[in-house]
Amino acid sequence: MPTSPAVQDPVTAPAEHAGHPVDRDSTGRDAARTRALASARLYLCTDARTQQGDLGEFLDAAYAGGVDIIQLRDKGLEAREEIAALEILREAAHRHGKLFSVNDRADVALLVGADVFHVGQGDLTSAQARTVLGDDVILGRSTHSVEQALAAAADPEIDYFCLGPVWETPTKPGRPAAGLEPLATVSGTTEKPWFAIGGISAGDRLTSVQETGATRIVVVRAITEAPDPAEAAARLRAQLTSADPDTTTATTPGTTPKDGTL
Fold first, then answer.
1. CA-angle at 235, arms to 53 and 215, nearest 5°
2. Which residue windows does the record flag with biased composition (Low complexity) (predicted)?
3. Does residue 160 lie within any of the structural domains?
4. Residue 7: inside a domain, yes or no?
5. How confident is the model over 199-214, as pLDDT tens digits?
6. Is 148 part of any known ligand binding site?
């Protein structure tokens, strides 16, 4: 993995913590974070890499490869352990000028100054999350059906949503695949950023997702289990941003993509 990734200007607003005003958009959000979300295409969820012991190096590689947002999602961590891992994530995000996301715990998100806070269907309501975190934080919601996706799209407090799982995934055992049809149904119905999620990998599967009109994805194993996380991220990024997705398809047409997915 790269040891000296390129450093960019942060998209977050550390000046606010020094008492300086934050540039806000028309919704009252931190404008820099809103712009970063609007341009985001590749979102990664990862655990704290406790077994590998390489969290900081891994995060640098993923961001350098083209990941826009990284969320720490590790249900096995105690609060102090989660905060320690998130501090490493926050530093990596700032080094690369990217966003970092906290899952489920609004108190933890507040403590670490998260750019993004993400909740599931059974977690805090958007109003509750805003009460705790205020207007600056980007707020995301998981959705698993067209109805839930459209509800998130219509919620003024939600800034983005994820829809899936497109394919079944061991990271969400017991949750049936939604398939590609919900993506096609939701595509074009909202200007709000949204991400397809669940079993997506570079090549044929990502091409199938793109053919529905989806332009943003969330992945886990496609990067976390890759021998070279930076290369895996760059491969996904290239296909997402290519005018012709087939030019970066890495699997043979008509074959099943190698299972290295969310």
1. 110
2. 241-262
3. yes
4. no
5. 999 999 999 999 999 9
6. no
